[in-house]
Amino acid sequence: MSFVKKFFVSDTHFLHANILAMQPRPFASIEEHDEHLIRCWNSVVGRDDICYHLGDFAFSLVEKADRIRWIFSRLNGRKYLTYGNHDLRHGELHPTIADLPWAARPEGFLFVEDEGQKLVLSHYGQRSWQWQHKGGWHFYGHAHGHLPAVGRSRDVGVDLPDVAFTPRTFRELTKEMV
Q1: Cis peptide before 106 (omega within 30 of 0)
Q2: DSSP code of residue 3
Q3: Tell me, what's the pLDDT at 62?
Q4: Residue 136 lies in a domain
Q5: Dihedral pair phi/psi, residue 113, rounded to 5°
Q6: Each residue of 78-88: b (16+ CB within 10 Å) or e?
Q7: Averaged pLDDT of the chain
Q8: Has residue 1 been placed in a domain?
Q9: How many domains are contained in the chain?
Q10: What pLDDT digit, counting tens, does each position of 35-81 carry?
């Protein structure tokens, strides 16, 4: 039996052509972007590993539902989602996102442990979180690197230089932190 690794990532924005200019992201097309993210994901996440996605998985949820399912099927690992603003429709989880074969039902928050540490996972950065004053950690997305970390919190979005479009482990994400 192989050792199962856990990874964290946010804001992949698959199929979101405008994200290329909004961030900016250095790709000539959204197809190039998506293929790069898939390669990066699969270069570190094994078939039996766990990957926590902290929201804004994809865009064009109605028009490109089949393509979203195809992208999802190509990503290694057991995938969990804390949903973001682009994963919702009218305040509810969008059917395209809800129907993907996640390892568990997507939630607004996840409470997990990794490396013996407690983590609060959400799409949105919090200034206060469970276990904050007892050594707990908080990983978030949404901010695309524009919301500074506080204590043991940090953005895990693909736009961060140390994430570089690739899911990262707890150890990789916290090595420079308090």
Answers
A1: no
A2: P
A3: 94
A4: yes
A5: -125, 145
A6: bbbbbbbebbb
A7: 96
A8: no
A9: 1
A10: 999 999 999 999 999 999 999 999 999 999 999 999 999 999 999 99
Q: Are the C-beta atoms of 118 and 174 separated by less than 8 Å?
A: no
Would you say residue 150 lies in a domain? yes
| Whole-number Å distance between alpha carbons of 85 and 100 | 17
Q: Which residues of the chain have pLDDT under 50?
A: none
**Residue 78 belongs to some domain of the structure:** yes
137: DSSP letter: E
* pLDDT at residue 20, as a whole number: 97
pLDDT at 178: 63
Q: Give the domain extent around 110.
A: 6-174
Distance CA 13, CA 23 (A): 11
Q: Return d(Cα 32, Cα 30) in angstroms, integer.
A: 5
CATH at 104 = 3.60.21.10
What is the identity of the amino acid at 64?
K
Written as six digits, the tokens of 173 are 């994400």
- Please report the pLDDT score of residue 168 as a whole number: 98
**How crowded is the C-beta side of 176, counted as CA atoms within 13 Å?**
6
Residue 10's nearest CA partner among 153, 124, 175 is: 124
